[in-house]
Queue: 2 jobs
Job 1
Amino acid sequence: MGDRSVIVGNSDGIGLALTRALLERGWTVRGLSRSPSQVEHASYQHTIVDVREREFLDALERALEAGDTHLVIYCAGIGEPFHPSRLADDIATFETNLMGFVRTVERSLPHLLSRKSGTLVGLSSMIDVLRSKASPAYGASKAGMSRYAESIGLAIRDTGVKVVNVRLGFVNTKMAKADFKPWLLQPEEVADRILRRVLTASPPRRLNIPRRMAALTVLAQFFVGRL
Ligand SMILES: NC(=O)c1ccc[n+]([C@@H]2O[C@H](COP(=O)([O-])OP(=O)(O)OC[C@H]3O[C@@H](n4cnc5c(N)ncnc54)[C@H](OP(=O)(O)O)[C@@H]3O)[C@@H](O)[C@H]2O)c1
């Protein structure tokens, strides 16, 4: 594993924690998000861009080509409560959470495959197996993201390139809006757990954090089907 990475969606939350954790480990990081970055570091460069805009593809390409990128992490995500008068929010959610990831795969996978090594990581959610009346677009976009990431990982398993689908429970960021947040984790702890599993020779295709929350969602899927 080398020391150059690109993180999409890192001005805040888990992406920001991952950026800081990689810099502490001596990596070079290029970040992309809509807001400026709080990070000032000799090994860090930031591009302001929206993953839903055409400019994103060029900005991502420049970030990938600026170095011999070994690690790409997609953290960009939004999630708003459902309301029938705000269905445009659902489109924004799919474009950010799912299509932004698909576009990131489209640009970064050929780059990693040409090197026959490297890892592509997507931050998904354990809601991917549940129906969600609170935020149907969020749950469905994460279901698509998880299935796509894990299937791509299977499809390229003999190439030397890895794809890791990180399925998260509750993490203490502005994204976590639920009233009840069992086993709430801090973003720094989550970043550390992700990197400890991803920066190995054989990263898992699916990473559940925390694992006991994954067990709870399996139970919820079968016994509380109306969640
Ligand atoms: N927190 C949780 O409990 C939890 C649970 C399960 C899964 N997740 C997933 O983990 C990922 C990170 O979430 P978080 O908790 O760290 O949330 P966060 O603190 O809200 O961070 C989200 C990041 O995504 C970026 N972003 C959003 N829309 C974007 C766009 N259109 N273009 C570019 N960047 C965009 C934001 O930056 P800008 O606003 O500057 O663009 C921000 O840096 C998300 O995919 C989320 O769904 C979180």
Job 2
Amino acid sequence: MPVWSHSRLQTYEDCPLKYKSQYIDCLKPREENVEAFLGIRVHETLAKLFRDLMMARMPSVDDLLAQFRRSWQENWNDAIRITKAEYDSGDYLRVGERCISNFYRRNHPFDDATTLAIEQRLDFALDDEGRYRVQGYVDRIARRPDGAYEIHDYKTSQHLPSQEEIDSDRQLALYEIGLRQRWRDVNEVRLIWHYVALDETMASQRAPEELDSLQEAVIALIDEIDAALEFPPRESSLCEWCGYQEHCPRRQHLVQIKQLPVDEQNLEDGVRLVDAYAELAGRRDEVKDELESLKQKIIAYAAGRGFDVLFGSAHRLTLTRRSKLTLPGQGEPARDALEHILRERGVWDEVSQLSGSRLLRALESGELDEPLRRAVLERAPTHETVLLRLSRLKEPGN
Ligand code: SF4
């Protein structure tokens, strides 16, 4: 039985395919990205700060910065990917230094609470039987003189969430559940996020009923993940930072192109096909509006003179007029009323049509019993159609 974590649940919510790659297929992520590297270095430096404080030693901010730079240099390697091409490792190093200085300046002399644990592993159950186990590592747990416990989390992100997002954050609320199981005297708990790159601190507290509903929601999500048979890719801005792009049908081609020498990338077969397609599609889009306006002029010209066929110098143009009903949409009352009248008058069977998309939906949702399903597929076998949708890349190579 797996032990769940906030990041495991979050990965499934962000992208089921990434979840499968990471947690079911246990594939190794391709490379570390600089944001994760920066986060690790800042976390280890702040952990060292509080370890020193627990040993009654007060390091200076310069000591911490020196340690941060040392660790950065010792651990940096060329495989670390810098996603934002306009920046380099020096820029990220400076962001890290700012994180350390901000935190130090804002919290010095660090005596408003007693640190109880640093990078503490919490392993706890969400149910009485222990079937839903969750684990997490808390950056720091502290206790205030008034007895309130604090769960601290360091964030190096440059995005400051809203208070609403903080109040519904799952990660620290889960840690609170774990904390309450770990120690008996826990009464008040404060959840605190240090957005160290932005020099901002945010806090939240949870009512017992909020923790109960969180517990229920997480159990429901775990059940959903356990029952999942398919893990489709879900593209988002997070793909740029995904370490499983080479296993993902949405990004594999891009990964392969980027592995080619720059001057060969535009010669790759797939790139050439897409470029040719884009060029033709662009021309089609260019003339579409022009064609439509010309069509309207032709219709008006022919209608005004009662012509059905017009002649050009080398072509003839035949105008065929057909009436078309504008049916009310699915679910609209007028559609139900229309169907009702047609059924009542006994003409429904003559005028209603088989709808391929509705039949396919019924097949896929399992609402048809097996004999009916087989009978349908025998007479209407499925076939695959591929729609192409062209969209512009935001930046070259993106
Ligand atoms: S690249 Fe994007 S869509 Fe593909 S697995 Fe990763 S997160 Fe999912």
